[in-house]
Predict the structure.
Amino acid sequence: MESLTYFQSSVADSIAVKQRLLDSPDVLATITEVADLCLAAYQRGNKVILAGNGGSAADAQHIAAEFVSRFHFDRPGLPSMALTTDTSILTAIGNDYGFDKLFERQLQANGQPGDIFIGITTSGNSPNIINAMTYARQHGITAVGLAGQGGDIQSCSDLCIAVPSGDTPRVQESHILIGHMICGYVEKEYFHEYRR
């Protein structure tokens, strides 16, 4: 019975954070703005680039996969990449330049003005994400932060979606919800002719 209480409490906590998200018009407005920026980037031939550490690295890969493969329906792929997948690149940069340069260096190689960079960090303070955000803003790449409450990322982003929670698992659960919403919106708006 004690284990059941733990699981019920976890579900309730997750729902509570999502309810706070639903009740936060400023956060929802930022999500809408980010989705519109991603759509506009695709319409002009740019791409969406994502990065994060640990669970946030998995989220970056998950969101990129939704853009490239499909979300709700079959359609052509949209150009998106996660900077967390190539072990040779990751270890080369980590060895030669340090872990803090992991994503900045890849953004320098693969980013173009007009692209969108989404840096995911639950703490809002991951140095390699902060460095990449700073690089993006200096080179015409829109820097979007996906974070929890607080952190340096809010001051170095063009836009920051801050989940109203300080609990890492609950923030990460909301991050993937937000990623799904953005992917679903972009797919729906970009591919009118493919919808049934």
